[in-house]
Amino acid sequence: MSMQLQTRFCDIFGIEKPIVLAGMAGNINSAALVAAVSEAGGLGTIAGAYVTPQALRERIREVRALTNRPFAVNLLLFEQPEQQEVTPAFRQWLNQQRERFNLAPWTGDWPTLQDEITDCFTVILEEKPAVFSCAMGLPGKYGESAKAAGMKVVGMATTQAEAEQLVAQRVDAIVAQGGEAGGHRSTFDAGEDGPGECIGTLPLVAQLASTIQRVPVIAAGGIMNGQSIVAALALGAEAVQLGTRFLGCAESTANKVYKERLFNAKETDTAVTRAFSGRPARGVVNHFMKEFDKSRARSLAYPIQNELTKEIRQAAGKALDADYISLWAGQGVGMLQKEEKAADIMNALLEEAQQSFSRLQSWVHEK
Length: 367
Ligand SMILES: Cc1cc2nc3c(=O)[nH]c(=O)nc-3n(C[C@H](O)[C@H](O)[C@H](O)COP(=O)(O)O)c2cc1C
Hints:
The protein is of the alpha/beta class. 41% of the residues lie in helices and 13% in strands. The protein contains 14 helices and eleven strands.
């Protein structure tokens, strides 16, 4: 018996199953992964961060060649940071990490960042995927242009106040990102220190779903199986967004040592860190994160610190050294066991959800 799980989110977004593949930046979401999720009836998402406009256009076309179904393109909308003072502790820590890969000490020059957000968004407007999704900030002018071009717009909130600002900007759905989530915290103003807002998925989704009724809430953070999907829907969510569950799949282009660490990680192995990018993000704890904590260095603003650690991460990636690359993953990582095909994951999620519904129903009796 197969179950039809159709929510308002499915109707608005023209999909069959209320399951969204998180846009995962950093060379993880291949075209094959995005297309597999959309082909299975969910909503695949292309990660538009850290790629050139040209590469983004190619990725969109690659996905289009694999599926006619709707998919999203995601951007990280952050504020450009001002130049800051660099502490001696930071410089010392950075240079120690660079030395390990025979990289010359940092010159101290403040990196110049190209504004690729505007250029990538121009590509999105020209290519017109069904959905434009964003995190870390409000969609603003990008959201307005996307809507005017007929796209659906999705924003990400970690608090009630952020969700209300997204509603005021007329988004079509809001991702409620719980503190369990893998990758960067989407908190709009993550401050200079600490983990950003980390409300658990359970209270965040329950609160937002009960207060924000105008648009569907998409639950994200720690959802690894069909049982968790049922729980999220019971809280009032009308869809779920999964990242970690798909990280280790066959179509994910996460590197081999990253996948190995994921499959061996326990539920206690993740933490939120600013070590890699300057912005809080959750990943499996490794040497790089521990050294940053020990140094007591003050992080630099995102994406400056990301830029300054890039060469180290690239060198470590080439050397297959998992202790110096970001191992983004959510608190559900302990449930990742082996490489599976994305389509099989989608089937398993639905089957488990169905079993979970039946189990719950079997407990309910008329008196
Ligand atoms: C490796 C990785 C990269 C991510 N990159 C992005 C991104 O580029 N844009 C975004 O909106 N969210 C990103 N996220 C966060 C997801 O949107 C989502 O909040 C999270 O994966 C949900 O929690 P889960 O990992 O426990 O499923 C990323 C998550 C991971 C694990």
